[in-house]
Q: What sequence folds into this?
């Protein structure tokens, strides 16, 4: 630090600079009050346009936020959700293929079981409609008779 | 969030200074009006959700950026036109055109009506001219600090430089103005 440097002198200089700057700025402001009429008009129009844009932007934001009724081609009505519901619909749409796959598997299983039941019913019906009584199949003698070669039973 | 009235009042309070500040930079009133309009619309469209207290700093930043955009476009245009013309438009950064100053003086004097206000108006005009002659960065710092009354940190944020640079620019601007105005016998 220079021995001749005085901190209070630096601060005083800053204050003087600021004071002079503010005085010049005040004169500029004074002069700005006398801007030409056409400039003032253009500034007014620019300001009004900006405000109008703000209003329309706010309206657009509000209409996006509120749920709206959408007329579908068939003439029925559907509710379109607000901005938060859009993502919920996307999540739901992501689950649709999985749900369809599960429903398909259940249908296949149901069809397979029904075929098995029908096959069993056919066998039961054939047994009951036959001349031979079903109790004969549990008779050990009849089982032995079935094992004998044809023509030796007599 | 600033209401329509708050935004309107703010723009009304700042529009004249914004125009003058931009006109100093671009030296073209029509271009300055376009830039101010562009800045107002950008503020209104993109920052409507900001509180009213943030508007001054935001607007100064937007205005500075819009002015820089204008200079970039002019630079491109000049680069294209340079091949077809020997005339060069003076750059806004520090150069001063005497003819433009005389034009400004003539324009201002044309609006005078009362004889006793002529000398005062001339003084204001000379101050205006001296401010216009400052190098661009010094003028920007000076106007933001003392006219827009931003503090050093806010001015640095708008100008995209350090606080030390802002202080240096302001000090140099004030010294240059004081010297030039004293030489013309003007005390603001």
A:
């Amino acid at each position: 630090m220079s021995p001749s440097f005085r901190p209070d002198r630096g601060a005083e200089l800053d204050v003087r600079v600021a004071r002079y700057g503010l005085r010049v700025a005040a004169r500029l402001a004074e002069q700005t009050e006398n801007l030409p009429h056409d400039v003032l008009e253009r500034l007014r129009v620019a300001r009004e346009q900006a405000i109008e844009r703000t209003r329309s932007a706010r309206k657009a934001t509000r209409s996006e936020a509120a749920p709206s009724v959408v007329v579908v081609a068939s003439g029925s009505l559907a509710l379109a959700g607000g901005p938060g519901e859009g993502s919920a619909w996307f999540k739901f749409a992501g689950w649709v293929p999985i749900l369809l796959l599960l429903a398909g598997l259940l249908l296949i299983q149901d069809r397979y079981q029904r075929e098995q039941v029908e096959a069993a019913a056919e066998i039961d019906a054939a047994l009951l409609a036959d001349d031979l009584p079903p109790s004969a199949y549990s008779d050990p003698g009849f089982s032995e008779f079935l094992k004998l070669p044809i023509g030796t039973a007599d | 969030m600033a209401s329509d009235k708050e935004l309107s009042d703010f723009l009304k309070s700042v529009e004249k200074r914004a125009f003058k500040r931009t006109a100093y930079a671009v030296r073209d009133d029509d271009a300055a009006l376009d830039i101010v309009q562009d800045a107002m619309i950008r503020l209104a469209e993109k920052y409507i959700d900001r509180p009213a207290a943030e508007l001054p700093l935001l607007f100064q930043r937007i205005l500075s950026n819009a002015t820089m955009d204008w200079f970039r476009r002019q630079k491109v245009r000049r680069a294209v036109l340079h091949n077809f013309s020997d005339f060069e438009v003076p750059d806004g950064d520090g150069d001063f055109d005497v003819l433009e100053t005389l034009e400004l003086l003539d324009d201002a004097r044309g609006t005078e009506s009362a004889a006793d206000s002529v000398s005062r108006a001339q003084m204001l005009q000379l101050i205006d001219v001296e401010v216009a002659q400052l190098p661009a960065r010094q003028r920007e710092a000076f106007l933001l600090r003392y006219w827009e009354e931003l503090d050093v940190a806010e001015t640095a944020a708008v100008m995209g430089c350090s606080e030390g640079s802002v202080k240096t620019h302001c000090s140099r601007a004030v010294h240059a103005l004081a010297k030039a105005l004293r030489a013309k016998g003007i005390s603001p």
